[in-house]
């Protein structure tokens, strides 16, 4: 389980075990489709996609259907024939077997415990991934707007009078869930990588090889809720606090410094933060009210949580001729007095 913004692993158990992942595979199929095809392109269904077992939309050989609709079927209803049709289309266009493309991409995005044999995820010797890799794959896929849009849908209608229904039970059930993909075969068990927002954080959780759909769902809900509870949304910078008083030239009164705006961030509960105030040793005149003069930074361990400018809370004018003359005279008297001490 990871927090999305930082990638921090909150909880892990046997995260590198290589296991079959079933239809979670379709996230890679969708990722490669986005890279090599346009949503409105028409795909002529290859005969290899017809008659694939498991969840399907009953594609017909030679049928023409848009890329976006095949992606919707593969991601929402987990249709195996749609995934195979996309794999044949993209592989034919690139001129390389689709599993080769899948494995090359897995290597490029850093999935060392992953190997693909099929675009649909049906049980096959040597087709596997790990909870750690699946989570990373899901995060990569969710950077694509079309994938983000599709995996959050509970249903959709596509050509041929087909209505799609999701297998993701957490959508609409666990607050804040917005994806991403389920998977089930007899060899893989009940799998899912889920993403949910709450308490100002986004949590990804992956379960592989659960014994039942109900157990998988319950465990995911517990993980997501626990992950969100590890954070508190706290004020870091306050607009009311004076962060320092900086001496100004010509003997002027020091200038009070405040934050340009308040700042709040989600932070791990029980973890101390470090605040660093960066200010100059002296300010040149004139100083305008609201002028940026420094910065305050907040760190969680070595990670920068946020920063905000520090500004002058008041103005200081440049002294006139007589004020400067008086300042020089005072300095001179001070020096002369020092000779006789």
What would the keywords be for this entry?
alpha+beta; Beta-lactamase; five-stranded antiparallel sheet; four-stranded antiparallel sheet; 8 helices; 30% helix
Secondary-structure topology with pairs:
Layout: E1 2-3, H1 26-36, E2 42-44, E3 64-66, H2 67-76, H3 80-94, H4 98-108, H5 131-141, H6 145-151, E4 155-158, E5 162-165, E6 177-185, E7 189-198, E8 201-210, H7 213-229, E9 231-237, E10 242-246, E11 255-259, E12 263-268, E13 273-278, E14 292-300, E15 303-312, H8 321-339
Antiparallel strand pairs: 1-8, 2-3, 4-5, 6-7, 7-8, 9-12, 10-11, 11-15, 13-14, 14-15
Helix pairs in contact: 1-2, 1-3, 1-5, 2-3, 2-6
Structure overview:
The chain is of the alpha+beta class and 341 residues long. The chain has 2 domains: 228 residues, Beta-lactamase (3-Layer(aba) Sandwich); 88 residues, Peptidoglycan synthesis regulatory factor (PBP3), Domain 2 (Sandwich), CATH 2.60.410.10. Helix content is 30%, strand content 27%. The protein is built from 8 helices and 15 strands. The strands form 5 sheets. A 5-stranded antiparallel beta sheet has the order 10-11-15-14-13, with no helix packed on it. A 4-stranded antiparallel beta sheet has the order 1-8-7-6, with helices on both faces. Helix 1 runs antiparallel to helix 2, helix 1 packs parallel to helix 5 and helix 2 packs across helix 3. The protein is elongated. It starts with a strand and ends with a helix.
Task: Summarize the entry for a quick read.
The chain has 341 residues and is of the alpha+beta class. Helices cover 30% and strands 27% of the residues. A five-stranded antiparallel sheet has the order 10-11-15-14-13, with no helix packed on it. Strands 1-8-7-6 form a four-stranded antiparallel sheet, sandwiched between helices. Strands 2-3 form a two-stranded antiparallel sheet.
